[in-house]
Amino acid sequence: MANVDHAKIREAVTMILEAIGEDPSREGLIDTPKRVANMYGEVFSGIDQDPREYFKTVFNEEHDELVIVKDIHFQSMCEHHLLPFYGKAHVAYIPRDGAIAGLSKLARAVESVSRRPQLQERITATVADALVDMLNPVGVYVVVEAEHMCMTMRGIRKPGSKTVTSVARGIFEDDAAKRAEIISLVKMS
């Protein structure tokens, strides 16, 4: 859990409830400020985490072909509206000199980056850059697809619309065939 100031959050939530014309002392709302403070501690637990930490332990395996972990489910909070967005990340890399990461570490990196006020574009780039920094792979390609509640429940109100972002590093920056291979693998069931 993030090191959040629970008292400040409770006070702020109470003020928001009052500002929208609600009675914070109403039975259903009495514990809402406390619940929101606890939720924010959990939802923003990645604020102090560095995703590169997950790639400090490297295994050596003579593997110089594509490694992909797909359908990594995540939830995050849009930093513009503090509304959730959620979806799946697909992380691929080609090891250099046999340096591979534990597969769960790819998912942990996505999780830590998503658990803070965030932008989808930043999640995509941060995960890719952490892999580049720590593994020095031949290439990294990260694709993130998500539904944003700031587009679903307010503003344009288009439920089901998805935003897709991708970041290519190394060999994937210039090799369209390699990128196409990853996209075809992501689309497979």
From TrEMBL:
Belongs to the GTP cyclohydrolase I family. Coiled coil: none annotated. The lineage of its organism: Bacteria, Bacillati, Bacillota, Bacilli, Bacillales. This is GTP cyclohydrolase 1. Keywords: GTP-binding, Hydrolase, Metal-binding, Nucleotide-binding, One-carbon metabolism, Zinc. Pathway: Cofactor biosynthesis; 7,8-dihydroneopterin triphosphate biosynthesis; 7,8-dihydroneopterin triphosphate from GTP: step 1/1. Zn(2+) binds at residues 78, 81, 150. InterPro entries: GTP-CH-I_C/QueF (IPR043133), GTP-CH-I_N (IPR043134), GTP_CycHdrlase_I (IPR001474), GTP_CycHdrlase_I_CS (IPR018234), GTP_CycHdrlase_I_dom (IPR020602). It is an enzyme of class 3 (hydrolase). The keyword Zinc applies. GO terms for cellular component: cytoplasm. NCBIfam families: folE, PRK09347.1-2, PRK09347.1-3. The gene is folE. One of its GO terms (molecular function) is GTP binding. One of its GO terms (biological process) is tetrahydrobiopterin biosynthetic process. It comes from the Bacteria. Its EC number is 3.5.4.16. Residues 9-186 form the GTP cyclohydrolase I domain. It catalyses: GTP + H2O = 7,8-dihydroneopterin 3'-triphosphate + formate + H(+). Homopolymer.
